[in-house]
Amino acid sequence: MDTLTSSEKHFALQYLREEALPSPFCPGCGNGITVNAFLKAVKDLGHEDLSGFAFVSGIGCGAWIPSPHFKGDTLHTTHGRAIAFATGLKVARPELKVVVISGDGDLAAIGGNHLIHAARRNIDMTVICSNNFIYGMTGGQVAPTTFTGDRTTTSPYGNPERPFDLARLVAAAGASYVARWTTAHPNQASRAIKKALQTKGFSFVEILSQCPTAYGRRTKAGDAVDMIQWFKSLPIRKRDEEAGYCVPTKQAHDLGEFVDREDTEFTEALKAMVRKVE
Amino acid sequence: MTAVKKIPKDDVVIEGLTGDAAIAHALKQCDVDVLAAYPITPQTIIVEDFQKFAADGEVKTKVIPVESEHSAMSACVGASAAGARVATATASAGLALMWEILYCAASMRMPIVLTIANRALSAPINIHNDHSDSYGARDSGFIQIYTQSCQEAYDTTIMAFKIAEDHDVLLPIMVCIDGFILSHNVERVEMLPDDAVADFLGIREPVQPLDPNNPITMGPLALTDYYFEFKEQQDRAIKNVPDIFKRVEAEFEKMTGRSYGMFETHKTEDADIIILTHSTAGGTAKVVADTLREQGEKVGVVRLRMFRPFPSEEIAEVVKNAKAVAVFEKCLSFGGAGNPLAMELRTALYHLAERPMVTDFVIGLGGRDVPPTTFVEGYEKTKEYLKKGEAPSYETLGVRK
Q: Which of A33, A48, A259, B163 supports an S-S bond with A178, CB 3.0-4.6 Å?
């Protein structure tokens, strides 16, 4: 086999700590696609490296996307609190592009309160949620994103609860930009992340991601290919379609943009208030 | 409740169980009404196994898979206030997140049984064993018992309900197992028949449950006028624990032939140097002591089980004639006058006119292996310090410096 020359190197490698590779993700995990979608957005925006970015993550498989893999400043924190840490970071260093990448368990369950309050404040940061509908790292327990009826290790006879629609939740809480795509839509996801990074205000990109190890096995959703096929069958929203209210199901989990609007951003509002007092 | 009697050998079921599975089985037999928990390594399997028992109809427990440990302990307090028998389990950061509610549980006198699979605290993130998590909850008002084997974890979990729910106690209790070392290791466990556990525990008799027909208020404001009195009562309650603990263990022994005490002594009678440690490290310490004894060394071991309330007088009585006590503990109290276990011991010995020297070795943080040689190293150092007549307040062993 020919050795790769540097020009043949994968575009993402310039942003990754090669000594941290291969990643710890299971075979078939969707997180690698999210890594590439994110880094492609970074490249398309003209960043040669990750200086100027600060990444914050919590606990869980999704939190391993930036830490330790991204060749940039990463703050790996406690379960659920990534957005709270990131809020402090952004207020102290508003010139940095603050990005939180984590999973649904981290951002929406134990850290759900921080998610809605950051959206309410409309603080300028990008949150990317790798949503695999389950607690993957601990071996497949029911999460607030697990579909009704799904069998997991802690809902062995089916989940009696309803899942969150994270995109609608964050949109309703006041975010400036919200989109949902899947690992079967890497180009759309990357374009949404690009838009999110350019948004002045709170931006949220949910990426439905296959977890064949925990979700696939526990809920009989199949292997990575089966789940990618499922993602491809999901409906795509029409532009400017009303978000409305709906409880996600496996068939009706709509993809696309939910919100793209301009509104007062938190650090700017803070600055304006300080100026007024001075 | 029928009188406790010895269980015939044929009625005992013997299985190979991990520490987590042993506790799940114990909880199943304890007829828990409500269990609320959040997944965290290395505790998760307890709740997974228990959820399966619930789903299979083997228990009538309402299991709530809540969205954080803070909510888990909150739900437990709510259920306990309504008079339910309640249990949960956590570890490390999960226990840290429960913090606020730990104090409420103890102060509102809720007899909740909380299993801790002892695990290091962040940062950096570490899933392996040390005792920083539960030592940190030292002053929360929970009773704390540390166990060495899967059998002991099973037995202690059953006894924990009876101790906690006793009307002279009414306090929550932590049953601690070493993360991975015990939680994930398979050992031989003798399980009691279901009806024997049911007879032993009976049904919880709440003193003042929430009851719409007889409304009361729990946990409201008590400022300078009455707050202190609540704490005074809580202090009195935890002082009752040793007596109740002994009574419960005596009853359990009648049934099973097994009892463990507030601490275990091993070859301490004539020992010059006594090792004090707890949990799985206690097993290693006893093997080390046996080997050193063969070489003519006069060494013994105290394996502590009950850290709260700390059995000060009883331990002082056992170690007072030794020349030194070598403490081995898996926690650092940064900047403290001593580390948690040594500090307790030194305080317990303070009133003695002649005190043994206390040496303190911090070992095994973040799951760093503690081989027998670590104990030998500490033992040799203690002998050296005895010769010199002075010792440093503590040292770390088994770490790159």
A: A259
Distances (CA, A) of B372 to A204, B182, B211, B328, B398: 52, 17, 55, 12, 11
Asked if B51 and A79 come within 8 Å (Cβ–Cβ), the reply is no
pTM (two decimals): 0.93
Distance from C-alpha of B202 to C-alpha of B79, rounded to nearest angstrom:
18
ipTM summary value: 0.87
For B3-59, the pLDDT digits (tens) are: 678 999 999 999 999 999 999 999 999 999 999 999 999 999 999 999 999 999 999
Q: With an 8 Å Cβ cutoff, is A76 touching chain B?
A: yes
Q: How many CB atoms lie within 10 A of CB B379?
A: 23
**DSSP symbol at B393:** S
Q: Are B81 and B112 in contact (CB under 8 A)?
A: no
Q: Tokens 């206030």 appear where? A: B81
* Nearest chain A CA: its distance from B208 CA (Å): 32
- For chain A, which domains are there? 29-277 (3.40.50.970)
Sketch out chain B's domains with CATH numbers. Answer: 9-256 (3.40.50.970), 265-396 (3.40.50.920)
Residue B173 structure tokens: 């209790």
CA–CA separation, A174 and A15 (whole Å): 32
A109 to B67: CB separation less than 8 angstroms, yes or no: yes
CB contact under 8 A, A141 and B68: no
* CB contacts < 8 A (A, B): 55
Contact flag A144-B65 (C-beta cutoff 8 Å) = no
Amino acid at A33: I
